[in-house]
Amino acid sequence: MSDYNFAYLDEQTKRMIRRALLKALAIPGYQVPFASREMPMPYGWGTGGVQVSAATLTPEDTFKVIDQGADDTTNAISIRKFFEKTANVGTSEKTEEATIIQTRHRIPETELQEGQILVYQVPIPEPLRFLEPRETETRRMHALEDYGLMHVKLYEDIARHGAIATAYAYPVMVQDRYVMDPSPIPKFDNPKMEMAAIQLFGAGREQRIYALPPYTKVVSLDFEDHPFDPSKAEHPCALCGAEDSYLDEVITDDQGTRMYVCSDTDYCESRRATGHIGTEGTQPEEVFA
Amino acid sequence: MTPLLSVKNIEKRYGARIGCTGVNFDLFPGEVMGIVGESGSGKSTLLNCLAGHLAPDQGSVTYDRTSTGPVDTVTMAEAERRMLSRTEWAFVHQNPRDGLRMGVSAGGNVGERLMAVGARHYGNIRETSTDWLGRVEIADSRIDDRPSAFSGGMQQRLQIARNLVTGPRLVFMDEPTGGLDVSVQARLLDLLRGLVREMGLSAIIVTHDLAVVRLLADRLMVMKDGNVIEQGLTDQVLDDPQAAYTQLLVSSVLQV
Predict the structure, then answer these.
(1) Which residue, of A54, A69, A83, A273, is most buried by count of CB atoms within 10 Å of its CB?
(2) Which domains does chain A possess?
């Protein structure tokens, strides 16, 4: 343990990140620049999220990492191990037990409570990036609330596909002021963003931090005659039978057979532990036996 | 009568060089003003100062806003100026690529201004776009095509539709017919003249084509080396030019 400062980053860096976090919380949805550090992992693997987590962790925290909802993927396991080693904090796979949850591309199904912090890994923080390539111009557009262009993107979707085809990273309006990219979470998760927990967003490569304080108003952009629709696959989970959770489509052979399972592994397991079994599910005890 | 736009003593310098200097004029509602002069005479600099794209070093531009009455657009906040430029003003660039979003369909291009001022009903936006494409003689079937698939003349007409869709009162045009062949130019001018008269637009048109101003402009201003050397009614200036440079300019037009 003595080889690392607590949570890997040095104190000055954590201080710098905390200042950015405080500013971000004071102006919900505003992208605050920060001096992103090199982390011992490639860009795109969550360097922004890791830095935000490192600056937020205290020795008493319980840490959870999910990657597309799952606790057991390479990315989630290695980030969890990273903080076990460098911060010696307790870790958990249970959403309710965790005080800080770092996530890539999902919000847990279990409703988060006050006192919890959700840290997002963000690849591209700028919602206007692919509409207006100039950073100077997008900043000015944010400053002047010049957001007509955002709806042009949705217009183009409807003109081309008959419906708003954006399924993830669906743009939101925060507290009637800033348009924000919610990171590539499925639009199914957008309504959950008005929550009791603090949400922090870190983009390492792009060197931006933004945040949503608890109970911030978050509205998904839409048209009056094409309202926002948080869609999901029309199936129950094959393992736990849940009808209300976001599902992954898993192709099981080369004949086109597929099954739909909860992308939130903790949610699925805890449902099975309490006796909710889907068509292809088993009790978790049997799995680990 | 209050002038729609009142320009007082505008000066813009690029370092020691003069962009334009000592420009004064009033533009009244429904009036079309032409600005002519050779390349480098400061026409575009002046237009950009008036439209708020460039900050003039001196002088004032007072615009008679519908809601509040006369306001100085040079000193107003940028947010307000942007609001003006997407509601009551329009700017037609010489090159349609500067004024259009090339990656967005024709309908989206026309709809952008509507959405920027708060339109949130897809059906209505689409209907208005279709209507405006019709008014600038672009077929309905092209509404979902990108401007890159359009000819130069169509792109320019699309740019005009995109600008006029919110019913502006003042249109700035920077060589709207530049780079088009003569027959397309003639149709575009015809269209512009119709729209200007029909909507009661005021316009400031910068051009070096005297035929354009003869057709469109009520009044004419001749610029040389950043200074206004002559102004008056279009026909008067073109038929009886007083300044030596204007005489040269008028006599330089080739007769077919």
Answers:
(1) A69
(2) 11-220 (3.40.50.11310), 247-288 (no CATH)
B33 phi and psi angles, rounded to 5 deg: -115, 130
Q: Strands of A90-91's sheet, edge to edge?
A: A32-33, A208-212, A198-203, A117-121, A100-104, A62-67, A90-91
- Does A144 sit within 8 Å of B108, measured CB to CB? no
- Residue B52 is encoded by which pair of tokens? 């708020």
ipTM of the modeled complex = 0.85
The catalytic residue among A29, A49, A69, A281 is A29
Q: Which helix (H) or strand (E) holds A64?
A: strand A62-67
Instruction: Determine whether A241 is an active site residue.
Output: no
**Which residue of chain A is at minimal alpha-carbon distance from B118?**
A148
Q: Do B82 and A146 touch (CB under 8 A)?
A: yes
A202-217 tens-digit pLDDT: 999 999 999 999 999 9
The CA distance from A128 to the nearest CA of chain B, in Å, is: 14
Distance CA A222, CA B121 (A): 9
Q: How far apart are CA A264 and CA A241, in angstroms?
A: 13
Q: Do A148 and B113 touch (CB under 8 A)?
A: yes
Q: With pLDDT > 70 as the criterion, what percentage of chain A qualifies?
A: 97
Residues of A in contact with B116 (CB under 8 A): 146-149
Mean pLDDT by 10 residues, chain B (256 residues): 92 92 93 91 92 92 91 91 91 92 93 92 95 92 94 92 92 88 85 87 90 90 93 93 91 78
Comparing CB atoms, the residue among B82, B115, B117 nearest residue A155 is: B115
Record the tokens describing residue B41, joined without a space.
Answer: 């005479």
Output the six-digit token pair for B112: 């952008």
- Helical spans, DSSP H, in A115-169: 135-143, 148-161
A214/A184 Cα distance (integer angstroms): 20
Per-residue pLDDT tens over the stretch B42-77:
999 999 999 999 999 999 999 999 888 899 999 999
Q: Is A237 annotated in the active site? A: yes
Q: Between chains, do B121 and A144 touch, taking CB under 8 Å as contact? A: no
